Amino acid sequence: MPPNDTTQRSARAGRYQRQLTGYSAFMPEPLPPQPGLVFDDEMHTLLSRADRALGRLDGSIQTLPNPDLFVLMYIRKEAVLSSQIEGTQSSLDDVLEVEASVFDNEHPQDVGEVINYIHAMNYGLKRLETLPLSLRLIKEIHEILLNSARGRDKRPGEFRRTQNWIGPSGCTLSTATFVPPPPDEVMQLLGSLEAFMHDNDHIPILIKIGMIHAQFETIHPFLDGNGRVGRLLITFLLCQKEIMMKPVLYISHFFKEHRSEYYEKLQRIRDYGDWEAWTKFFLRGIATVSLEATETARRIVGLREEHRTLITLKLGRSAGSGLTIMERLYSKPIINVGETSDLLGITYQSANSLIQRLSDLYIIEEITGNKRNRVFRYTPYVSLFSDNRAEHNESNVARTESEHMDMEKQDNVNIVD
After folding, report:
1. How far apart are CA 246 and CA 102, in angstroms?
2. What is the widest separation between alpha-carbon atoms in the chain?
3. Which of 79, 138, 281, 364 is deepest in the core (most CB within 10 A)?
4. Contact predicate 413/172, CB 8 Å
5. What is the pLDDT of residues 61-94, one digit of tens each?
6. pTM of the model
7. Mean pLDDT of 292-313
8. What gap in Å lies between CA 410 and CA 403, rounded to an integer?
9. Could you give the percent of the chain with pLDDT greater than 90?
């Protein structure tokens, strides 16, 4: 908070309790907050906008031909952005190339973290078909998220048994920006949060989801990965409550664009009980990203029709095969000649000819620069999901080394036994 801020500290969201070893840890109050949320005119307006924008997004996705073909790209984008909030450098291109086994020494080493996020998202969505969101499922997702990646030595799939804290490099428990509740309180707090998730109250669902995310981040129940798991919960809850039929909201785009405000609003809850400021920020993010994702869906439809027409007009008797390849590229936007041959059941020479004709039409482009073992990307489609300000071109990120280290500390918590 700025030094001249006159806002009074409040125990509405919880209080800091001094521990035996001298540091103070935050003990959150159970949800919903008391007194209840103040619904002023701005809150009503933001809630209405968010509801309408989400409904428009869900409707636009349903108009896509075979929506499941396109959902994975939305998931990949959310995975990239959520991971970048925690300091990863991998872009959407890096993820697509690694998935397609395009080996490049220049790929960031942390691309595995983003791949894990995608796996965790898909696993969780599949499990939600038969298992309600629960602490058990949250642990399973956490284990996938940290598998063979940063944090793999921090008890993947287990709630913490030691104290953690958040702050700049070199800080201690006494100088940390925030100290979550002690480990012996974690299970009780999580149990209360789980009960709130399933309580049939009258809180508008978007506001409730925002509260759940904030409370989870405050409890900080894992030794690493809390931010990413907390953002996964937003998608899981939206889908479980059937607000979205498909997981196409990349809310981390808004959180990343407003990263400082994101953390500041969460901290204001703890220090000042300011649930209203956080909720308005969250609703603004839902509305903003919903509109962006809806526009992406509109552009997908336009691009698909443009390229289907182009293939039909230019490829003659090969048009059917060209359309088959194009449909495959919506789920996996990188392909090589061998895969084309296998998919269509044609000779390598015929597949090579077809791929070249698609390249000549600027539908796909070669991305390795090789004369042999060439790999092609459906760049016009990938570009619809690439944020040129943040993830597609690393040179545009322009982070200093100190800023990068600070980002990592938001999720790479310090640990005290």
Report:
1. 29
2. 79
3. 79
4. no
5. 988 878 888 899 999 999 999 999 988 889 999 9
6. 0.88
7. 95
8. 11
9. 76
- Which of 107, 142, 213, 220 is catalytic? The answer is 220
φ and ψ of 180, to 5 deg: -65, 175
- Detail the residues annotated as belonging to a binding site: 86, 220, 224-231, 262-263
CA angle, 89 then 93 then 95, to 5°: 70
What Å distances lie between residue 314 and 122, 308, 318, CA to CA? 37, 10, 9
Residues 228, 411: Cα–Cα separation, whole Å: 8
CA–CA distance, 184 with 22 (Å, rounded to integer):
17
List, as residue ranges, the binding site for ATP: 86, 220, 224-231, 262-263
Phi, psi dihedral angles at 278 (to 5 degrees): -65, -45
| Residue matched to tokens 């495959």 | 328
Best CA proximity match to 314, nearest among 343, 355, 357? 357
Alpha-carbon span 335 to 357, nearest angstrom: 14
pLDDT digits (tens, 9 = 90+) for 137-178: 999 999 999 998 777 778 899 999 999 999 888 888 988 999
* CB burial of residue 148 (10 Å; 0-12, 13-18, 19+): exposed
Q: Which residue is listed with tokens 């506001």?
A: 207
The ranges of the chain annotated as CATH 1.10.3290.10 are 14-296+399-416
Domain with CATH 1.10.10.10 in the chain: 301-383
Q: Among this protein's residues, is 253 annotated catalytic?
A: no
Quote the CA–CA distance of 368 and 391 in Å, as a whole number. 20
| DSSP 8-state symbol, 246 | S
- Other CB atoms closer than 10 Å to residue 262's CB: what's the count? 22
Structure tokens of 251?
């809310």
**In one letter, which amino acid is 136?**
R
Q: How far apart are CA 334 and CA 241, in angstroms?
A: 34
CATH of domain 14-296+399-416: 1.10.3290.10
Closest to 380 (Cα-Cα) out of 392, 370, 365, 358: 365
SS3 (DSSP) at 378:
coil
pLDDT in tens, 369-409: 888 889 999 999 999 998 643 333 333 333 323 333 333 33
